[in-house]
Recover the amino acids of this structure.
């Protein structure tokens, strides 16, 4: 099963449970129903049907249609394994359209706000829309949630609706200036797509629509990826540092060996000789290690200064490091 299908199963399961327990208001049930029908591929006097890879979505569509017309509808399976429900009779299509205030003759399909009684209905409508025309990419691969439709005006209505969503703050108040989600729009091969690209918006949309488990899953993956990136960055940084330190130590040892061969370490002044000896014996010492192990400890920059002097003296003797 795809992640998108899992999300839809969760939305339907939680919605059905809420309805069974009397936990969903009539206005919200109506809005959810409207979302499912309005965002279907076909919603007109000549055709009302849904085609979906998710069996539960097709069943929900059939049940809602039945609740309006009193007729029962069967699920057909297409050759590609999708589920299809088709309202074949014209008068039943008319009943469904009228139920939502549509005539089916509209030039532009658009959202009739009369189907939304109150703010509580926004979540239900968005859930219905997602069940009908939405999809989400597996968060392991990418963060992407979208609603796809063939009507420009409808996509505008959906964008507007999403910007009207306001989640209560922790103290229960609402900041009406805050844009909770960050929906984007694109025309893709002739269809209109309203989508979300950042993981936090996706988590919020999922929670808002009623799929908290999926939201937590996305969040968990995001946190894991963030952590892994941080660890990787840190490791790369440390490796790069370790590499640089190793190169420097290697060069110092080369220079010291050169002096030793040319003149002997006695050639070096006392404070440089002690450091040169220490470096020769401890190629893995950092500057601080070297500093701490001198008879009279000095600062890191002091050690660095002395090492530079050793290199200069080696160069003075003809070393070509
Ligand atoms: Zn409501």
């Amino acid at each position: 099963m795809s992640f998108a299908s899992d999300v839809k199963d969760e939305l339907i399961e939680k919605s059905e449970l809420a309805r069974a327990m009397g936990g969903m208001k009539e206005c919200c049930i109506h809005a959810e129903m409207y979302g499912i029908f309005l965002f279907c591929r076909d919603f007109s006097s000549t055709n009302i049907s849904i085609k979906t890879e998710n069996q539960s979505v097709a069943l929900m569509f059939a049940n809602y249609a039945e609740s309006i017309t009193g007729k029962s509808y069967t699920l057909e399976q297409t050759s590609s394994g999708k589920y299809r429900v088709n309202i074949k009779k014209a008068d039943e299509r008319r009943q469904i359209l009228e139920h939502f205030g549509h005539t089916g003759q509209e030039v532009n399909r658009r959202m009739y706000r009369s189907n939304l009684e109150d703010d509580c209905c926004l979540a239900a409508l968005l859930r219905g829309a997602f069940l009908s025309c939405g999809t989400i990419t597996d968060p392991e691969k990418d963060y992407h949630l979208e609603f796809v439709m063939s009507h420009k005006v409808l996509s505008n209505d959906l964008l507007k609706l999403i910007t009207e969503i306001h989640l209560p703050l922790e103290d229960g108040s609402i900041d009406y200036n805050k844009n909770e989600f960050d929906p984007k729009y694109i025309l893709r091969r002739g269809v209109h797509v309203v989508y979300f690209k950042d993981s936090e918006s996706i988590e919020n949309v999922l929670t808002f629509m009623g799929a908290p488990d999926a939201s937590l899953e996305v969040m968990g993956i995001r946190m894991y990826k963030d952590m892994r990136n941080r660890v990787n960055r840190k490791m790369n940084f440390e490796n790069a540092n370790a590499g640089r330190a190793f190169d420097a130590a290697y060069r110092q040892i080369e220079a010291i060996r050169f002096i030793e061969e040319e003149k002997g370490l006695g050639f070096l002044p006392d404070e440089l000789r002690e450091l040169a000896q220490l470096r020769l014996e401890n190629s893995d010492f950092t500057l601080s290690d070297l500093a701490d192990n001198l008879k009279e400890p000095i600062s890191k920059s002091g050690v660095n200064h002395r090492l530079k002097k050793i290199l200069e003296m080696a160069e003075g003797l003809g070393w070509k490091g």
